[in-house]
Design goal:
Length: 716
C-alpha cells in the first residue's frame, strides 16, 4: 500500500476525473439525435452515441493504473492514467484517461524496472524516456478502494505488482470469465500485442490465461488495426456453445462487439450447401470417453480394452493432411476427367473445336473452381450460339437451330461429372460403377479400416464431426469461397482438439495467415481427432508465416493444486512443460473416503462446507455422464438443487455443477470434488491421466479427491 499522502492525491484525482467525465457526458447528451439522410451526419451521430455509451461504462471504474513518464527532450514528468476506455478532454484534446491498448499503456505491462530508460512504439516511431512510477489503483462504483505501487524510480524490490495480482487471483469466481486488463502479465502482453499477420501458435499450460489472452488480443487488434479489420470478419472458434456462453462477458467488458463466436460444427453446418445429418454430441462423447472402456449403468468395466488410436483410426485419418492430399489427388483426377474431349456441334457445320473448348477449360478459366469453370464455359458456348444464330435470316431455321443447339448442349455437358460435395465424398469411400477408374485408383489408397467404417456411416446416413472439414473442403474446391466467408482474423481456442485438416481449411479463408491458435497438448483428450504435436500445425505455414510461444505460468490454481496436477502430467509421455504456479498458497489437496452407502451425505457435507467458506462455484466431477446424472438425481431427491451438465448443455449458470470430467475443459470452479478417482475409473494410461489432469486444473482454490475402495494408481 502507499502513503496516506499518495492515497489522498489519488482520491482528489479520481474526483477531478469523474467531474470531467460527467461534463463530457452531459455535453454529448445535449446533442440531439440526427434523423436526416446525410451519411456524414449519421456517422457523426453514431460516433457520439458510441462515445456516450463508453463514457457511461467507464464512469464506475475510470482507470486502474497510473504511469509517471518523462519523454526524452521534455522537461516535465507527466502522469498518465490507464483505463479500459480512453477519454479525451474535448476542449484541450488532452487525454484524461489512456486506453489500455494505446502504445504508451504497453509500458504498464512490459516495464519491469530493470532498465533505467525505457521506450514504447508509437505510430510515428519509437518514443524514449524514463518511467518514474507505476501504480495500480482499484476503483469500484466510483469509490477508490486500493492504491499499490509496483515501481517507484530509485526504490528497490517493490513487490506491489505480485501483491496486486495475488489479490486478484484470490477472488471468488462467478459463472463468467472476466477481463484481466489491470493485471495482464508481460508474457501475456507480448502475445496480445503481437503483429496481426502471423499464425501464432501458443502452447499454454492449464490456467495460463490462453482464452483470456485471446479475447484481449482481439480487442487489441481491433484498436490497433482499426482501419484494416472489421469485427464481423473476425471469428473465435470454441469447443462448445456452453463454453461460448461462459466467455461471453469478456468482449463486451472490453467494449468490443460483433465478433463472430462459434463452434466449428455450427460454422461448418451453416456453410455447407447441403443438409448433413451429424451424430449427436452426447453419443459422440459417449463413444469417445466411455464406450472404449465398456459401460454398465454408469460404471466403467475394468476388463475391456482401451480405445486405441492409430493414424488409421477413421477420425484421426480424416483429420490428417495425408487425407487432404489424397482428396486433392481425387479432385485433380476429376478435373482431368472433365477436360472436354469432343467438339460441340450446335448444328450442321457450326461447331466449336475440341482445341477451343480445351483452351477455355485448361487456360482461360483455369483460375475458377471446377463447377464455376463449367458454368462459365456453358455461358460462353451459349453466347457463341446466339452470335451464330444472328447470321441466320430465315426465322424458322433460326428457331430450329436454337432448339437443336440447346438439346445438343445438354447432351454435350453430360460428359462432366456433376455430383454434389456429399455425393462425391461418398464416392470417394464407396466408388460406384460410374466413378472413373483414375478416381477409383485414388480411393483404393484409403486404409481398409477407414473405408469400412465409412461404409457403415453412409449406410446409417449419419456422418461424424470429422467429416465436416473434408466436406467443406470439397465444396470450396468445386464452388469456391464467397468474399463474405473470408476472415480478417481467426482465434482457435482449445486448438489441440482441432485437426491439421481443420486448420488447413481455415488457412484458405483467413487473410494473411492472421491466426491466434491456442491450446494445451496435456489437455488433448480428443486424441482421436485432434493435433498431437504443434509441429503438425506449424508445417502448414512457411517459417515466416508462423511463430510459436509458450505460456508456462498458471494463474488459476493454488500452488498445491498445480503441484498435484503436475504429478499427473508425469504419467503422460507428453513432452510439454509443467505448469509453474504463481506464489499463491492455499489448502492442501484433500481426500474423502467414499463409503458406498453414504454417498449423498458425503456430498451434502462437502457442499455445505464449501458454501460456508464463501465459495460461489463448485463442481462435482465424475468419470461418466451416467455417474453425474445419478448424483444429480440423488441430490435432487434429497432437496439439493444442482446443475447437471451434459454434452447438449448450452449455458453455464455457475453454482453447484455436477459434470463428467471430459466436459469440464475450459471451465473453472472455486472448489472441485473429483468423485470416485478409483482404479476402475481412471487407469494408468495417457488418456485417463489427461482426463484427470483436466479435472484437477479446473479448481481455483480447493481440490478434493473422493476415493472408494481402490484409488487409481494415477494418484496413489
Ligand atoms: N494476468 C492475469 N491476471 C489475473 N487473472 C488471470 C491472469 N491470467 C489469467 N488469469 C485468470 O486465470 C484463469 C485461467 O484463465 P483462462 O481460462 O483464460 O486460462 P486457459 O489457459 O485458457 O485455461 P485452460 O486451458 O486450463 O482452460 C482465469 O480465471 C483468468 O481470469
Amino acid at each position: 500500500m502507499v502513503s496516506e499522502q499518495s492515497y489522498h492525491e489519488e482520491q482528489r484525482q479520481l474526483e477531478r476525473t469523474l467531474k470531467q467525465m460527467r461534463e463530457i457526458l452531459e455535453y454529448r447528451s445535449k446533442k440531439p439525435r440526427y434523423v436526416g439522410n446525410d451519411v456524414t451526419e449519421q456517422i457523426l451521430d453514431e460516433m457520439n452515441e458510441k462515445t456516450k455509451q463508453e463514457l457511461k461504462r467507464a464512469l464506475n471504474e475510470p482507470y486502474f493504473g497510473r504511469l509517471n513518464f518523462q519523454e526524452e527532450g521534455k522537461a516535465e514528468v507527466q502522469p498518465y492514467y490507464i483505463g479500459k476506455v480512453g477519454v479525451m478532454d474535448h476542449d484541450s484534446n488532452h487525454p484524461i484517461v489512456i486506453d489500455w491498448r494505446a502504445p504508451l499503456a504497453s509500458l504498464f505491462y512490459s516495464f519491469n524496472g530493470e532498465e533505467d530508460r525505457t521506450f514504447y512504439e508509437a505510430p510515428d516511431g519509437i518514443v524514449e524516456g524514463s518511467l518514474y512510477l507505476k501504480r495500480n489503483v482499484v476503483i469500484r462504483q466510483q469509490q477508490l478502494l486500493r492504491v499499490v505501487d509496483s515501481f517507484v524510480k530509485g526504490e528497490l524490490n517493490l513487490t506491489g505488482a505480485d501483491e496486486f495480482l495475488l489479490h486478484k487471483l484470490g477472488d471468488r469466481k462467478d459463472h463468467r470469465l472476466r477481463d484481466i486488463v489491470s493485471t495482464i502479465q508481460q508474457e501475456q502482453n507480448d502475445i496480445i500485442r503481437a503483429p496481426k499477420n502471423t499464425a501464432m501458435i501458443i502452447q499454454g499450460v492449464a490456467g495460463s490465461g490462453k482464452t483470456t489472452v485471446a479475447l484481449h488480443r482481439l480487442a487489441y487488434l481491433l484498436y490497433h488495426y482499426r482501419d484494416q479489420l472489421k469485427p464481423e470478419r473476425m471469428m473465435i472458434f470454441a469447443p462448445s456453445t456452453m463454453f461460448l456462453d461462459y466467455i461471453s462477458a469478456v468482449l463486451p467488458e472490453l467494449g468490443v462487439g460483433d465478433i463472430q463466436q462459434r463452434t466449428f460444427e455450427e460454422w461448418a453446418l451453416g456453410l455447407l450447401s447441403e443438409e448433413v445429418a451429424l451424430s449427436d454430441p452426447a453419443s459422440r462423447y459417449y463413444r469417445r470417453f466411455e464406450q472404449p472402456r465398456g459401460v454398465e449403468d454408469g460404471d466403467l468395466k475394468c476388463s475391456s480394452e482401451d480405445g486405441f488410436v492409430t493414424e488409421n483410426t477413421a477420425s484421426r485419418y480424416k483429420g490428417s493432411i495425408a487425407f487432404k492430399r489424397l482428396l486433392d489427388s481425387y479432385l485433380t483426377c476429376m478435373e482431368e476427367w472433365n477436360t472436354p474431349d469432343r467438339p460441340f456441334e450446335a448444328w450442321e457445320n457450326h461447331a466449336l473445336s475440341v482445341d477451343t473448348l480445351r483452351r477455355w477449360y485448361e487456360y482461360e478459366y483455369r483460375s475458377y473452381p471446377l463447377y464455376r469453370r463449367k458454368e462459365r464455359i456453358l455461358a460462353r458456348i451459349k453466347r457463341w450460339v446466339e452470335s451464330e444464330l444472328k447470321a441466320i435470316e430465315d426465322r424458322q431455321r433460326q428457331k430450329d437451330c436454337r432448339k437443336k443447339a440447346s438439346q445438343r448442349l445438354r447432351t454435350w455437358s453430360k460428359q462432366w461429372l456433376a455430383q454434389s460435395p456429399s455425393e462425391l465424398y461418398r464416392e470417394l469411400f464407396l466408388p460406384s460403377k460410374r466413378t472413373p477408374q483414375p478416381m477409383v485408383a485414388v480411393s483404393r489408397q484409403i486404409p481398409e479400416d477407414v473405408r469400412q467404417e465409412m461404409a457403415t456411416a453412409f449406410k446409417g446416413k449419419v456422418l461424424e464431426y470429422e467429416d465436416l472439414a473434408p466436406l467443406l473442403y470439397i465444396q470450396f474446391q468445386l464452388f469456391g469461397v464467397e468474399q463474405k466467408q473470408r476472415f480478417d482474423h481467426v482465434v482457435i481456442d482449445e486448438a489441440q482438439d482441432f485437426s491439421p485438416f481443420q486448420v488447413d481449411l481455415m488457412k484458405g479463408l483467413v487473410r494473411e495467415n492472421s491466426f491466434t491458435i491456442l491450446g494445451d497438448l496435456a489437455q488433448g483428450i480428443h486424441a482421436d481427432h485432434g493435433t498431437v504435436d504443434w509441429k503438425q500445425l506449424q508445417e502448414l505455414f512457411s517459417e515466416e508465416q508462423t511463430t510459436y510461444h509458450e505460456l508456462k505460468q498458471s494463474y488459476r490454481s493454488t500452488m498445491e493444486i498445480i503441484q498435484f496436477a503436475n504429478h499427473l502430467l508425469e504419467k503422460t509421455k507428453l513432452a510439454v512443460s509443467k505448469a509453474v504456479p504463481v506464489f499463491r498458497s492455499g489448502e492442501p489437496v484433500q481426500w474423502i473416503h467414499i463409503d458406498p452407502g453414504n454417498k449423498v451425505s458425503i456430498l451434502r457435507t462437502w457442499i455445505k462446507q464449501m458454501q460456508k467458506q464463501g465459495y460461489q462455484s463448485m463442481a462435482i466431477v465424475t468419470r461418466t455422464e451416467k455417474g453425474a446424472s445419478n448424483i444429480y438425481q440423488d441430490l435432487l431427491e434429497n432437496g439439493l438443487e444442482t446443475s447437471f451438465i451434459d454434452a447438449n448443455r448450452q449455458e453455464y449458470t455457475g453454482g453447484i455443477s455436477v459434470i463428467p470430467v471430459y466436459l469440464t475443459k475450459g471451465l473453472e470452479f472455486d472448489a472441485v470434488l473429483l468423485w470416485e478417482v478409483d482404479e476402475h475409473y481412471y487407469r494408468v494410461n495417457e488418456q485417463e491421466a489427461k482426463l484427470l489432469y483436466v479435472g484437477c486444473t479446473r479448481a481455483l482454490h480447493q481440490l478434493w479427491i473422493g476415493v472408494g475402495e481402490q484409488p487409481s494408481p494415477l494418484i496413489r
